[in-house]
Amino acid sequence: MQIGQRTLRAALATIGVGVLTASPASAYVGPGAGFAAAGGALVLVGTFALAFGIVAIWPLKAAVRWVRMRGVAKPKVKRMIVVGLDGFDPGLAKKFSEQGLMPNFKALEEQGCFAPLATAYPSISPVAWSSYATGVDASRHNIYDFLTRDPCNYLPMLSSTEIKTLPRTLNLGLAKVPFGHKVVNRLLQKSQPFWKLLGDNYVWSSIIRVPITFPAQKFKNGTLLAGMCVPDLQGTQGSFSFYSTKPRPAGQHIGGQQFTVRRSGNRIDSNLTGPHGADGSRMKCPFGVELDEATRKAKITVGDETHEVGFREYTPWMTVPFKGVTGIARFYIQDWDKDGVGIYVTPININPDDPAMPISHPFVYAIYLAKMQGPYATLGLAEDTWALNERVVDEEAFLKQAWLIFEERKKQLWDVLDKTKRGFVTVVFDTTDRISHMFYRYLDPEHPANAGKDIEKHKDVIPQLYAKMDEFLVEIRDKVKEDPETVLMIISDHGFCNFTRCVNLNSWLRDEGYLVMKDGKQTSGDYFADVDWDKTRAFTLGLTGIFINRKGREAKGTVSKGPEMDELLREIKGKLEALRDPKTGDTVVKEAFITKELHSGPYADMAPELLVGYARNYRHSWDCATGGVSEEVFSDNTKSWSGDHCVDPRLVPGVFWCNRAINTETPNIMDIAPTALDQFGVKIPAYMQGQPLFGPRKPDATPKTAPAPASRPAADPAREVVQ
């Protein structure tokens, strides 16, 4: 699925990739008339009753499952709960525990265990959480990054999801008559999640916001609310809006849309931008802001709703009506002084009370949650990291938003714990990851992003984050109680390290003669605009790997698979591992992995041929990730996005706490799926590469279907807490 260029910028911005050039507007989802035609139909035909019907028949379904389970599976436990704290880092956890900030995690470790959790290769969330769900590596679940390239034209594609609009036709035999459009959603992740196998054996699963679950896939005996890669209503991965009476700096606005508005007396009126309508143009929804200078409060009106909020206070979620479809958004007055007013609006989320796309299974489950708990964020990457990177909001606004979303997620966890007395429960919290990305610089006074700034105000944000998760653990354990038949795990998909220096590997490939520019040009804009593919042998896109321009795979391939490609890979690998930063003299790449030597699954052939295991402090530059070629290879990272994990996976393991001892000191994220199956008496498929964490463990000999031992490392013993 090729992504439109403006929309790609918004998608990449939310995952930490910026784009600096202008280009035509288009949308990768492009739902168009599909939204208008299908928008609220199901809700209008009784979904309210259906949603509450889920609750009403829950005890009956549980009883039926219990009877059927007796003949199918023999569970060893009553319930297994896995709480995901995305990006929680074992080194920081150890440091803050020693400082007395995490006594409850320390108690959990003493009761059961704590260990670094080996993450996926590459160490990036869509890959790691896919391995969590399937028990296999990237070459078997087909997710290597947020992005891949379309080999037909070298343009970027989302790796996990295909969403497109197709014409509807009525087949009359002699002719097909068009009558509107339909939206087609397809999950590109391969293999199968372990909760599907549990459901086939009548074990109930409640799955909340696990990444790479959109569109929500059907499975027996369970509910699911989709996470990472759920789009906003514009069809992007998160496009904020900012309306200001002040002139804004000229240039490209990354990750959102910025508008200059006029104040008339005490009022500001403008429009929110929505999805494409039936005529192909973007739909608009008017809103108004009435300012009271005396009280410093504002009344904000959208559709039939009006809410009064104070300066720098978020509105509740407000329904944003478009023709045939509704979304939800929050408003926040960021600026209000003698120079003017600035109003931030979150990306317009799919309305969970009236879903325009399949964000849950069953479809009415999202509606049920909205009816029971009120509206909540549905965007896959809901915390607006790029609004802070662009400085349209400040750290205070970002933290307020992140903790509001955290509280919504807690309500969802409490609900599934109450409803799932037997079976499997997992809920993933993103707040830990997003705050770590944006505030890591405050752990390092010398970080380039801190230049000329007062860092005292936010220097304790990350320690406080870890302390707050310790308090959250108390709440979880109070809900779970001390039930000997309940297994509780707290895990993360990866850890974190400092990100101070950007590396444009496309520029390095150019300098080494592997990537060739057109007409003697030295630089290129996004999407390889000025690359000569007839002479190029290697290129990079996304955050994790280098592709070989292969004959028979890429449209203008120049390198033959076999000895020629193998020799080229060895050559590039050797040069990368010898690369030094001219500013610091430090090694840039800890290890470059040849993918086929690491992974042997069926989808490795379409993956990057080299996975770049950066050393601490380094990562792909913002423009490199979108196919840009800059003049210089190295640059300082001055963005608020200052911590990262797209490095050698051995440097950024996740965390693993459990209320029981396990059978290894080096658990792997692929071990969770077979452990869940084993605990509920379900046969573990032979293709799974992880091992159960309880009971006897198989010898260390690698099964023929598993990756080489290098892909299952323990944490680096020399790892430092802050780099």
UniProtKB/TrEMBL annotation:
Residue runs in coiled coils: none
TM stretches of this protein: 37-60
GO MF annotation terms: hydrolase activity
Transferase as UniProt keyword: no
Keyword terms, alphabetized: Membrane, Transmembrane, Transmembrane helix
Name used for this protein in its record: Type I phosphodiesterase / nucleotide pyrophosphatase
Biased composition (Low complexity): 702-716
Keyword Hydrolase listed: no
A matching Pfam family: Phosphodiest
UniProt region (Disordered), positions on chain: 691-723
InterPro entries: Alkaline_phosphatase_core_sf (IPR017850), Phosphodiest/P_Trfase (IPR002591)
